Amino acid sequence: MNDELKRLYDEDLREHASAPPCGTPAYTAMRERDRARRERAAALIAAGLLDAAEDFFHAARLFQHGDTPEDAWQAHTLALRSAQMGHRPARWMAAAAYDRWRMYQGKPQKYGTQYVSDGRRQRLWDVEPGTTDEERAAWDVPQLAEQERKAEEATRLHPPTPVPEDAPPWLREALLRWEADGRDG
Predict the structure, then answer these.
(1) Using 50, 70 and 90 to split pLDDT, how confident is the model at 157?
(2) Which residue windows does the record flag with biased composition (Basic and acidic residues) (predicted)?
């Protein structure tokens, strides 16, 4: 296992376990550290220094905290590689990264792993209606009803913050769509 990548992964876990509120200077600083960790992971990947399934999983987590569809797709491909090598936790990560990749494009997610704050509550990002709970189970994702319950619990435990003025376009467009559809709260 790549020790440096494991250290970066552990830093990411610690920091995101007690992430500051979105829009605060502390949050902005955390996102900058996320970017630096992704850059270092990219350098390790380019140097061919990932060997173990855990290495690919650790790198996937770092890219999962990216800002772009490309970051999310990189997380997905790294997690898939880890899962193919037999690392079971990578199955959920592959599904979550795929969902984030779709979300960052403004599309419905497939599995139902991604949540956003709409300023009033934590909500499950739109989900493709054709995806079955059996498909979710194949990737170690809980049933859709459980994912919806988690969104309600997250609202109780972590009151939503206002949507920042500089929210990404995919989120701003979704807020308008949900309001027009009457699903804004």
Answers:
(1) confident
(2) 146-156
pLDDT of residue 117: 87
CB 89 within 8 A of CB 56: no
Closest alpha carbon to 152 in 133, 175, 124, 127: 124
pTM to 2 decimals? Answer: 0.93
User: In this predicted model, what pLDDT tens digit does every residue of 103-121 receive, in sequence order?
Assistant: 999 999 999 999 998 888 8
- For residue 52, the SS3 value is coil
Give the tokens for residue 120.
Answer: 């009033």
| 94 close to 135: Cβ distance less than 8 angstroms | no
| Contact by Cβ (8 Å): 26, 20 | yes
Tokens of 63: 């890219």
Of the CA atoms within 13 Å of residue 175, those in its CB half-sphere come to: 17
Calpha distance 17→22 (Å, rounded):
14
Banded pLDDT at 162 (limits 50, 70, 90)? confident
